[in-house]
C-alpha cells in the first residue's frame, strides 16, 4: 500500500514536471552538450566515466564553488556580509583544512567513488544521451534527493551530537566555530561515511541515468558550501527555495553547537523546536541592529 502511494506521488510529480517541460523553449545548450556527452561515451569506458568522471566532477565543482568565498576574505567591501565578524579566516586554519580535505577526498571518498561503476551496473543505470532526463526532470529529482538527504542528515547529525559519542566523531567537523566554504567536507572519516550515506538514498530512489549522479553531486556541493561559506550575501538565489536553511542558519550551529541540525531545509528543526536558540539569537541580533 505504502509503496503504491509513493509510486503514485512520484508519477504525479513526473507528470507535473513533464507539463512544465513541454512549456519550455528548446534549450540552445543542448547541441554542444550532446556532442560533448557522445564524445565522452565514444572515447572512454563506462568504468572510466563512472570513476574518473565522478572524481573530476567532484573535485572541480568543490573547489570552484569554494572560490568566491575564498576571494571574499580579500575584498573589504564584502566584509559587511561576513556572519561572524569577530572571527576572520586565517591562513593557518585554511591550510590545515585544505590538507585534511585532500586526504579525505583521495583516501576515503575515492575508494567509495570506485564503487560507482558497479552501482550503476547493479541497478542497470544507463549512460547514453537518448535516455538522459532533460534538465527540469534532473532538477526535480535533485530536489527529491535533497528532501531525503536532509531528513537522514537531521536525525543522524543530531545523534552524532549526543554527549556520549560527540567527541569521537563529529567533534572534528566542529573544530572551526566560524566556518568557511572549504570546511564543508572537513570531517572525521566515519562521519563522511555516516552522513554521506544520505547522499545515496535519494540516488537509489530516483536514479534513472548517470547524469543524475553528477547533477545531484553538483546541487549538494553548492548547498553545503553555501551554508558553510561564512557569508550571507544579498540576492543569493538559493534563498528562493522554500524552507532553505542558508549560511546564517548553519553558521549558528557551528557557533552554538546546539540546534539547527538540518542540512538543507529548516522544517525538521522547526517541527522538533531545535531551532529555538537560533530564533532567540536572531531576534536579539535584530533588536541590536534597530538600536
Ligand atoms: Zn554538528
Ligand atoms: Zn557544518
From TrEMBL:
Main localization of the protein described in the UniProt heading: membrane
GO cellular component, one term: membrane
Fatty acid hydroxylase domain segment(s): 144-274
Keywords: Membrane, Transmembrane, Transmembrane helix
Entry-linked PANTHER family: STEROL DESATURASE
GO process annotations (BP): lipid biosynthetic process
Superkingdom of this protein's organism: Eukaryota
Membrane spanning stretches: 60-78, 98-118, 192-217
Protein name (record): Fatty acid hydroxylase domain-containing protein
An example molecular function term from Gene Ontology annotations: oxidoreductase activity
Cellular compartment(s): Membrane
Pfam families noted in UniProt: FA_hydroxylase
